[in-house]
Specification:
Layout lengths: L1 H20 L4 H5 L2 H4 L9 H8 L4 E3 L4 E6 L5 E6 L7 E5 L5 E4 L3
Antiparallel strand pairs: 1-2, 2-3, 3-4, 4-5
Length: 105
């Protein structure tokens, strides 16, 4: 009986410690376009984007480096970079798949 109780307590302790060390998953759900917009300037580089916004949800591109950040309310923000150089575009992909260009300051 003591072994079972010990094993149960150990299992709960391990599960609790793993929950405390996991990265929060809510940040993606809380992302909003308004949080990104002040930083969408013509000087934004991929390194600056990673530093300011964290790792993108997806990296793609052919000829361009495209960072995709999923926003909490459904759309996806696309940031296009020519390699590690400054941004060339920012676009918002809506839930229905349509795109709109975002201004760079």
């Amino acid at each position: 009986m003591r072994r079972i109780l010990f094993a149960l307590c150990l299992g709960v302790a391990v599960a609790s410690s793993e929950a405390c060390t996991r990265a929060p998953t809510s940040s993606r759900n809380e992302r909003s376009l308004s949080a990104f917009q002040p930083y969408l300037t013509r000087r934004l580089t991929p390194a600056m984007a990673r530093s300011q916004f964290g790792s993108p949800d997806e990296i793609t591109g052919s000829g361009l480096l495209i960072y995709k950040y999923r926003l909490g309310d459904g759309p996806t923000l696309w940031l296009g970079f020519p390699g590690e150089a400054a941004i060339v575009y920012a676009r918002l992909e809506s839930k229905d798949g349509t795109f709109s260009d975002l201004p760079l300051r």
